[in-house]
What we know:
Blueprint: H1 3-7, E1 19-22, E2 30-33, H2 36-44, E3 54-60, E4 63-70, H3 80-86
Amino acid sequence: MTMDDQCAPYRAKLKAEPFASIVPDRRPVVKVHAGIGLAKLAVGYEEFRGARGGEIYGRTADGWELLYRVESGTQLEDLPWRKEETT
């Protein structure tokens, strides 16, 4: 029996869209987040030097899907989700 099969009865109690962030300069490098906002903060927040950089993934029926990739030092106004908000 796979892990997905074992977890299936409990899936309804979980958040529908869990997210994960990978930030190379953070320990642990990979963290799971209940909402997209927390994942964005993990990758995009750095008060004075631009974004920390990393990747944000969303859980889909087929596994994990890359949603955003941010280079370290990206200015906060140039983050991909900020650009989506202005269009």
